[in-house]
């Protein structure tokens, strides 16, 4: 790297004031880029200023008075900005300035403090694709490392870069760290390597397992250099690494260490050869002394099949195979790919009985119970069943972790995973000692913070009390149970879910062993006893009376038996009732599987089966579709659905001829559904939302796509909760399916709108739908512009459901409509369609429904907040201003139909909010205000038809003038 822009050493002989004035002048020139970042004319002046700063750096200004103050005041921010400058010449020159300071500053302690300011910017510069800037940044960082310019703060910035988000930053940071570790320590021992050994080991641990190949390579080089300088720290780090990382380190060690190992390995080979030779001599002597005949040798024995030798060879081979299999299982369970983890769990289930490392198997299995992928979690539960069947005692030490993991699964949205976890928890109670299970539950209650998991833990404890009533008639289990449940009563919020579950568990404990419950309860302090009695006053009203009678030595009274609801047992029974019963015989099992997949299992010929299958596909793909000869009925249904959306502002008015009534579809004959059999992939019945979306992504045929969409629609209607996690993916697929207007068959688009309609109608999906209301309106607009009336009807139903269901707050609806209309009106081409017109009319529909009860609020609009009252008709001023601006822009549209619709929307807004809406309509011109006034008076007179009295004529311009609003502009 060059040392500056001028050749030779430059010495500045300035006083402190002259130096400060010079730095201030350079700072003023450099700060011009901050005040005007887009000014490209002054870059030459800034380049000259950077070269002047480099000249001062080569003159060693580090010993001047207040060096750090001057640097912080005049150099820090401008130099940082120019390091990150987009112009290559300026960023490269800024790197040269930092290098000049590193090479020529004699006050090393002060410069190490200043280095911290530029390390982050230099690391950020390494992510660029420009080779000149990249090389300048890397060379500057290496210069700082070689000149020992990294102080504690700068070194911390470098270590932070080793774990940065960008792979280029990580690999270059490890390259600089390699140079620093080679240096070992600074000159004055202020930043010795041992002071940062923990931080270095931490970043090396992450770098050795990094996803980037080059980052891992540089991290390995750093590790072996650290091993040469700090062997104890490197050994500690090596022991804490995973087996796969260790093997990678051993395979790809540094060349010097590899050479040493090869030298040592040759010596070891010679020793082993000597030992083998001695062993052969001893074996020959043993053969001579053996009772075998003289003509028999070991080779002959092997050739003729000696059973002992054969068993020894087979045993040795089996041990090697098991060691290899165990290594594969370890690597698979620690993999980042869910498919490899799934295969590892299958291998673990098959070969667990042959593994010697059974405790390690359990330790590897427990984290997989809560795997992010539900398939892996279900396979882990199956493997856990195998372990409990083969070695039931091995889970005793880790039973709390297992129970906690299964309770966490029960708290998730996956119904299949939750049911499997619940069944396994019930099996644990059957196969494990009651005291071990109880202690594990109590430990979970103490460790877990999530309320939902705590509720499931208390319900599980209640199930344990009910299933083992005789065991809790003993003093010790009852005392332990009361102690932990009392802790839950003290720590949990009164009236919360955990508190209610604890009351239910205490009631079940009392019902299971009432006598022992009272005897142990009296052993607690009076305050704790009164707390339990007060909490159970509703469930067990006679508990206080029984405690007083027992304290006074009186006989207990007879009370009516109590009935306690057990949520855990109810859900367990519900799962067992819904499971299909197994039938003997492969024929019946095959029939059951076919019935689950939707395939008839009659013994009819294949042609009959194909006919039935095609009929099934027809019913799936064309459900509720009209046949070819009933187009007029479909048109009638379409008009009826549109009339639901259209507001009754002008009924039978000659002033409003809606384009939706005059415009006809360009294609009028709906195509009959295609009769195609379902592919084998779609026939597989699955209840997992992610799997269905994977099938939808892979489906190529129209019939397959329709069948999958029908399945998704049915699942959403039955249980929408599992679709919360994959809502984003499903919406992406709908955005791909619905706008496909070039498809000749409309069944896929119609089915996609039906799925969207099911999503919109579910209150459980309110929050994600609110986040995506704009996309929902745009998809409905595309459907209303479709050529087929069937698609048109379903899209209109989606829009009507959003507007009139009461699930979504009015504020969010109007904001989404305004954003959608902004997309349309931002294009000044004058384009118009019936979908956009209907979306504009929906604003009129909203104000016709809620206008009289609607209020404008001053609070800022919370974009994705869910209202407590979904019928809330308060509209924030921000949303209302955006909506009015869009409608005013629509009044100026080139299409007459759009202008008429926008005027009627303004009339409905004026009627709904009266004078409160006038400040937001000042953008209307004088003629537009007059037109709105005419239509307002016309609508008001039509609404008062048949009533006595006259309608007062209102003038929008006059009322705005009274409110002292700006006068209208003349177009």
UniProtKB/TrEMBL annotation:
GO BP annotations listed: microtubule cytoskeleton organization; mitotic cell cycle
Residue ranges, compositional bias (Basic and acidic residues): 566-576
GO CC annotations, alphabetized: cytoplasmic microtubule; spindle
Region annotated Disordered, chain positions: 280-308, 558-635, 650-672
Name of the protein in its database record: CLASP N-terminal domain-containing protein
InterPro entries: ARM-like, ARM-type_fold, CLASP_N_dom
UniProt cross-references to PANTHER family, sorted A to Z: CLASP, CLIP-ASSOCIATING PROTEIN
Domain CLASP N-terminal intervals: 41-249
Annotated organism of origin: Trypanosoma cruzi
MF annotations from Gene Ontology: microtubule binding
One Pfam short name: CLASP_N
């Amino acid at each position: 790297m060059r040392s500056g822009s001028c050749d030779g050493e430059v010495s500045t002989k300035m006083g402190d004031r002259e130096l400060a004035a010079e730095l201030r002048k350079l700072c003023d020139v450099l700060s011009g880029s901050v005040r005007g970042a887009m000014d490209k004319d002054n870059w030459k002046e800034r380049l000259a200023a950077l070269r002047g700063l480099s000249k001062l750096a080569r003159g060693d200004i580090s010993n001047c008075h207040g060096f750090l103050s001057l640097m912080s005041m005049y150099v820090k921010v401008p130099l940082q900005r120019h390091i990150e400058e987009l112009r290559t010449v300026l960023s490269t020159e800024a790197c040269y300035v930092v290098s000049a300071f590193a090479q020529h500053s004699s006050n090393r302690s002060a410069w190490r403090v200043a280095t911290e300011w530029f390390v982050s910017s230099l690391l950020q510069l390494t992510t660029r694709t420009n080779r000149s800037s990249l090389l300048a940044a890397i060379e500057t960082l290496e210069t700082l490392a070689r000149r020992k310019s990294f102080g504690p703060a700068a070194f911390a910035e470098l270590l932070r870069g080793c774990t940065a988000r960008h792979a280029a930053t990580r690999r270059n940071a490890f390259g600089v760290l390699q140079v620093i570790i080679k240096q070992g320590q600074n000159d004055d021992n202020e930043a010795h390597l041992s002071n940062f050994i923990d931080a270095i080991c931490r970043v090396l641990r992450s770098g050795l397992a990094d996803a980037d190949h080059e980052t891992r390579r540089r991290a390995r080089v750093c590790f072996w250099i650290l091993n040469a300088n700090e062997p104890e720290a490197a050994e500690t780090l090596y022991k804490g690494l995973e087996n796969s990382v260790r093997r990678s380190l051993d395979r790809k060690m540094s060349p010097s260490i590899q050479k040493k190992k090869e030298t040592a390995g040759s010596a070891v080979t010679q020793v082993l050869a000597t030992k083998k030779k001695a062993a052969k001599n001893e074996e020959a002597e043993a053969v001579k002394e053996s009772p075998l005949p003289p003509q028999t040798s070991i080779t002959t024995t092997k050739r003729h099949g000696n059973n002992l030798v054969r068993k020894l060879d087979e045993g040795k081979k089996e041990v090697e195979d098991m060691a290899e299999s165990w290594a594969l299982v370890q690597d698979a369970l620690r993999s980042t790919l869910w498919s490899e983890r799934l295969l590892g769990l299958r291998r673990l289930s098959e070969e667990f009985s042959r593994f010697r490392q059974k405790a390690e198997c359990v330790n590897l299995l427990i984290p997989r119970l809560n795997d992010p992928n539900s398939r892996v979690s279900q396979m882990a539960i199956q493997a856990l069943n195998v372990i409990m069947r083969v070695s039931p005692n091995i889970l005793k030490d880790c039973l709390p972790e297992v129970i906690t993991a299964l309770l966490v699964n029960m708290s998730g949205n996956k119904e299949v995973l939750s049911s499997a976890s619940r069944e396994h928890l019930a099996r644990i109670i059957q196969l494990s000692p009651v005291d071990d299970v109880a202690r594990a539950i109590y430990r979970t209650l103490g460790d877990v913070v999530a309320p939902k998991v705590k509720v499931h833990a208390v319900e599980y404890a209640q199930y344990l009390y009910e299933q083992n009533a005789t065991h809790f008639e003993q003093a010790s289990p009852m005392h332990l149970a009361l102690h932990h449940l009392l802790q839950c009563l003290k720590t949990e919020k009164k009236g919360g879910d955990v508190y209610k579950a604890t009351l239910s568990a205490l009631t079940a404990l009392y019902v299971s062993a009432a006598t022992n419950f009272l005897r142990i309860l009296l052993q607690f302090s009076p305050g704790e006893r009164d707390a339990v009695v007060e909490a159970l006053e509703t469930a067990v009203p006679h508990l206080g009376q029984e405690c007083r009678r027992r304290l006074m030595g009186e006989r207990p009274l007879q009370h009516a038996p109590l009935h306690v609801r057990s949520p855990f047992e109810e859900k367990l029974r519900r799962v067992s009732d819904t499971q299909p019963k197994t039938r003997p015989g492969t024929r019946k099992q095959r029939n059951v599987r076919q019935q689950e997949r939707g395939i008839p299992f009659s013994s009819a010929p294949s042609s009959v089966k194909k006919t039935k299958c095609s009929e099934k596909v027809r019913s799936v793909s064309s459900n509720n579709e009209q046949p070819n000869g009933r187009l007029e009925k479909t048109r009638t249904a379409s008009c009826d659905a549109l009339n639901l959306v259209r507001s009754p502002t002008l009924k039978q008015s000659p002033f409003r001829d809606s384009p939706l009534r005059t415009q006809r579809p360009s294609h009028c004959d709906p195509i009959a559904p295609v009769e195609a059999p379902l592919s084998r992939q779609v026939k597989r019945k699955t209840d997992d939302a992610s799997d269905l979306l994977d099938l939808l992504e892979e489906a190529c045929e129209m019939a397959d796509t329709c069948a999958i969409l029908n399945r998704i629609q049915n699942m959403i209607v039955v249980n929408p909760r599992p679709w919360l996690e994959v809502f984003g993916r499903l919406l992406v697929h709908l955005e791909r399916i619905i706008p496909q207007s070039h498809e000749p068959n409309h069944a896929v688009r119609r089915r996609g709108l039906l799925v969207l309609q099911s999503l919109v109608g579910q209150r459980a999906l309110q929050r994600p739908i609110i986040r995506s209301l704009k996309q929902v309106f745009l998809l409905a607009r595309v459907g209303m512009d479709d050529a087929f009336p069937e698609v048109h009807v379903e899209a209109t139903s989606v829009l009507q459901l959003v507007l009139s269901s009461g699930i979504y707050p009015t504020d969010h609806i109007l904001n989404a409509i305004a954003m959608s209309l902004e997309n349309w009106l931002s294009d000044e081409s004058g384009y118009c369609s019936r979908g956009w017109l209907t979306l504009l009319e929906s604003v009129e529909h909203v104000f016709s429904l809620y206008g009289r009860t609607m209020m404008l609020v001053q609070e800022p609009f919370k974009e994705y907040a869910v209202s407590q009252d979904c019928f809330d008709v308060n509209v924030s001023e921000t949303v209302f201003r955006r909506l009015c601006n869009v409608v005013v822009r629509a009044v100026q549209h080139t299409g007459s139909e759009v202008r008429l619709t926008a005027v009627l929307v303004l009339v409905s807004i004026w009627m709904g909010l009266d004078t409160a809406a006038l400040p937001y309509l000042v953008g209307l011109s004088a003629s537009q205000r007059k037109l709105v006034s005419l239509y307002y008076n016309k609508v008001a007179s039509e609404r008062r038809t048949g009533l006595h009295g006259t309608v007062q004529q209102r003038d929008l311009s006059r009322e705005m003038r009274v409110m002292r609003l700006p006068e209208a502009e003349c177009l």
